[in-house]
Write a structure and sequence with these properties.
It is built from 8 helices and 11 strands. It has 259 residues and is an alpha/beta fold. The chain folds into 2 domains: 7-119, MutS, DNA mismatch repair protein, domain I (3-Layer(aba) Sandwich); 138-248, 2-Layer Sandwich (Nucleotidyltransferase, domain 5), CATH 3.30.420. The strands form 2 sheets. It has a 6-stranded mixed β-sheet, with helices on both faces. It has a 5-stranded mixed β-sheet with strand order 9-8-7-10-11, sandwiched between helices. β3 and β4 form a beta hairpin.
């Protein structure tokens, strides 16, 4: 998977045209994304990223030559962007959209550009990019505090009662629907298979046995603070009313809850 700034351009930054230098700067800042760079009526990718976008989106790539040298480019028409963005998201890419943030006529030189959106499979809210009739969840799995055990949620026996515990949270950011649960690795795998998230974030101490059931983009992140006050102050200011009410009833961590 090709993301970030093209290595072929990083190696000769001094030779780049002003626009390509601007593209490289943006791509370096979003090195886990495919950067789509607004140029007129197209969102463009260059070099290795252009090859990848052309392959995934079934677009034609072209060879360009200027003072920078020879390189490949690929363009997505702005008016038809949702169709191609969906293909990139379905292929588990993060996509950073770098728009022109000033009118070309008003620019004294190079048009200023900046990333205005970062799209991931589980954080889409644009109706044109959402699948009809189903939820689009982003899920997170984190290890419980030291000493917590997973238990079993089926009440059949005590097997696995001393296994490590994990918390699971899932949210559909397009609707505000959210849910939390917890258990051992087997419980987590069962829950992820059930909700089929579009994207999964997990801590470094969550085993593959818990996450492999998620057939989606999976990203390992350093464990964040699990303090309820931290989560509330971060999420609630921009949350929907329904999500706010739901979160007010959550005790963190809610582990060993019966499903």
């Amino acid at each position: 998977m090709v993301t970030g700034a093209p290595a072929t351009m990083l190696d000769r930054r001094e030779e780049l045209t002003p626009m390509l230098a601007q593209y490289v700067d943006v791509a370096e800042s979003y090195d886990d994304c495919v950067v789509l760079f607004r140029v007129g009526d197209f969102y463009k990718a260059f070099c290795e990223a252009a090859d990848e976008v052309a392959r995934v989106c079934e677009l034609t790539r072209i060879e360009r030559e200027d003072s920078t040298g020879t390189y490949t480019a690929c363009g997505i028409p702005v008016d038809n962007a949702p169709k191609y963005l969906s293909r990139l998201l379905d292929a588990d890419y993060r996509v950073a959209i770098a728009d022109q943030v000033e009118e070309p006529e008003a620019a004294s030189g190079l048009v200023d550009r900046a990333v205005t959106r970062v799209l991931t499979p589980g954080t889409v809210v644009d109706s044109e990019l959402l699948a009809e009739g189903s939820n689009t969840y982003v899920a997170c799995v984190a290890a419980a505090p030291d000493g917590a055990s997973g238990g079993r949620t089926d009440d059949t026996d005590d097997e696995g009662a001393d296994d490590p515990a994990y918390g699971v949270a899932a949210v559909d950011v397009s609707t505000g629907e959210c849910a939390v649960t917890g258990g051992d690795a087997a419980d987590v795998a069962e829950e992820l298979a059930r909700i089929a998230p579009a994207e999964l974030l997990h801590g470094p101490d969550v085993p593959a046995a818990a996450t492999d059931a998620a057939d989606c983009m999976r990203t390992e992140r350093d464990a964040p603070s699990t303090a309820a006050s931290t989560a509330s102050s971060t999420v609630l200011p921009s949350a929907s009313t329904s999500m706010t009410l739901a979160m007010e009833d959550i005790s963190i961590p809610q582990l060993n809850e019966k499903k």
